[in-house]
Fold this sequence. Notes:
By secondary structure, this protein is an alpha+beta fold. Helices cover 29% and strands 36% of the residues. The strands form two sheets. Strands 1-2-3 form a three-stranded antiparallel sheet, with no helix packed on it. It has a three-stranded antiparallel sheet with strand order 4-6-5. The chain has two domains: 34 residues, no CATH class; 111 residues, CATH 3.90.470.10. α1 crosses α3 and α2 runs antiparallel to α3. The chain contains four helices and six strands.
Amino acid sequence: MAEIKTKKVTTPKVKVVETKAKTAVVKAIKPAIIEAAKPVIAKYLNKNLKISPRKLRLTANNVKVMDPTTAVTRLKFTNNNAARFMAKAIQDAIASAKNNYSMIPSTMKFVEIRVDEGMKIKRMDKSHGSRFARGIIQKRHSRLSIILSGTIQS
């Protein structure tokens, strides 16, 4: 029987077997197909935060560039009412994305943080009379929506 020698070719995808008669390609080795993890989007919405949208937007614009876990730690040390609201909202968004979509918290990123105007509570203050917007006091509220993207645990 002829002696069989195996020899590796420069490309690792093909294995070549040599015999005295001829050279034949025995099998092509296929690399394991690794599917890229598809990003998943998780949404958080709070329609009624008792803080004015302008104050909340100031902290939201600072937080947008960070990843969510560092944003929460940074906001915990910020002495600001808007930072307290934002930290709680981001923690809720991370927790719901982790539990409902089984996302990995270290891979999460902000897709969008949007602060819109919510309802207004208006009341009359007779002591102001015709000054200060006809004596109407407005208590402004905010709508906060956070959209996170990240990869799923396999």
